[in-house]
Amino acid sequence: MQIVRHSEQTLKTALISKNPVLVSQYEKLDAGEQRLMNEAFQPASDLFGPITLHSPDWITSHPEAPQVFEQFFSDPYRKTPSPDKRSIYIQAIGSLGNTRIISEEYIKWLMGYCKAYFYGLRVKLLEPVPVSATRCSFTVNENTQNLQIHAGELHNFKKPENAFCVVEITMIDLYPRDSWNFVSGQASDRCFTGQGKVDSRKRF
């Protein structure tokens, strides 16, 4: 387990933008909202604590270029909600735990996270479907002997008309192509498919 901490200056460099649109939005916030935003720059903040990496080996062996908020905001491919597409749908594929109660608990946790993190969007739950209903290609991992289903083909589920995105979650191993052993999740312009980990970390 590894703890990632950043200095106040590093956080400000990554998060503060000079984009006039963002500056204008910040200035429209009331004093309390601005104080909440400013908490993100405090390394010892109770609201924005250091990041805990439970699988540092993956991060080390698959490095990614850092991205500051300005880059994210200016990305021409960044998808934004519209008046007629403001709903996040959650689609469970197969059981998410050993019992129905456990499955419902994880769905409840995920819905709460989406409502808090994507404030202002509606979060709705679709009826869960069995793995067999996906009609996806599958394989058996030669190392783990676990069943794996093709992540990309899971994106073929019909998306509701008013969906901003569909989040598909499953406990079955995923693979994106034959040359890969596995993948933890895969996103497209219509949905995100993720493999859940049933443990105390609740990592999706």
Helix-strand blueprint:
Blueprint: E1 2-4, H1 8-15, H2 20-27, H3 31-38, E2 51-53, H4 56-61, H5 69-74, E3 87-93, H6 100-117, E4 122-125, E5 138-140, E6 147-150, E7 163-170, E8 173-175, E9 185-187, E10 191-195
Parallel strand pairs: 3-4, 3-7, 6-8, 7-10
Antiparallel strand pairs: 1-2, 5-6, 9-10
GO molecular function: metallopeptidase activity
Protein name: Archaelysin family metallopeptidase 2
Organism: Macaca nemestrina (Pig-tailed macaque)
Keywords:
204 residues; alpha/beta; Collagenase (Catalytic Domain); 2 domains; five-stranded mixed β-sheet; three-stranded mixed β-sheet; 6 helices; 21% strand; disordered C terminus
Strand order of the largest sheet: 4-3-7-10-9
Given this structure, which CATH class of the largest domain is correct?
Alpha Beta
State the separation between the terminal residues, measured CA to CA. 17 Å
CATH topology-level fold name of the largest domain: Collagenase (Catalytic Domain)
- CATH architecture annotation of the largest domain: 3-Layer(aba) Sandwich
Which value, in Å, is the CA radius of gyration? 19 Å
- Count the domains: 2
Shape: globular
Order of helices and strands: EHHHEHHEHEEEEEEE
Given the structure, what is the number of helices? 6
Strand element count: 10
Low-confidence stretches: 197-204
Helix content: 25-40%
| Beta-strand residue fraction | 15-25%
Under CATH, the homologous superfamily of the largest domain reads Collagenase (Catalytic Domain)
| Biggest sheet statistics | 5 strands, mixed
Mean pLDDT comes to 78
Query: Class by helix and strand content?
Result: alpha/beta
